[in-house]
Amino acid sequence: MSQHTDNAKKHMDKSIQALRNNFAKVRTGRANPHILDEIKVDYYGQPTPITQLAGVKVPEASMLVVEPWDKTSLRSIEKAIEQSDLGITPSNDGVSIRLPFPAPTEERRKELAKECKQLAEEGRVAVRNARKEANKAIDRDEELSEDEQKAEKKRVQKLTDNAIEEIDSLLKTKTAEVMEI
């Protein structure tokens, strides 16, 4: 692989990873510990991720349990979850925090599926932009002959096709997960 196809592959891989991260944050009726990744807790004046302050367990499909290692941070964690945009009401039993995930309504599942399609399209656009940049770089590379340029562009197109195929597969899986009751 040349430098151009290598750079294109790195950009495409980053786009796919970003899509995976975005899909992990889409809330379904199933408990997913990754939805807590972005929530910061005020811990002794420092904004700290929940995952650094507590263990997060999934005892059943529709429940998350957050168990702080430092019991004095229990109230701060609960407050941070309440103030987040998760739309989940935490219940504190003095030792841990329970987060019940109610099954979304039919209408909400359709909205989530639509949101997933939008995220996937953004991923496709990012992949196509990586292809465009790689093709421009190939055109500017004066060390490559015309045949070598064509071969490079063909390899970049193959990478693009594979990345788009992976995005479509991720979307299909996530949509099925979202629409599941």
Automatic annotation (TrEMBL):
InterPro entries: Ribosome_recyc_fac, Ribosome_recyc_fac_dom, RRF_sf. Keywords: Cytoplasm, Protein biosynthesis. Its main location: cytoplasm. Gene3D superfamilies: 3.30.1360.40, Ribosome-recycling factor. Signal peptide: none annotated. It is found in: Cytoplasm. Residues 133-152 are annotated as: Disordered. Residues 19-179 form the Ribosome recycling factor domain. Belongs to the RRF family. Responsible for the release of ribosomes from messenger RNA at the termination of protein biosynthesis. May increase the efficiency of translation by recycling ribosomes from one round of translation to another. This is Ribosome-recycling factor. The gene is frr.
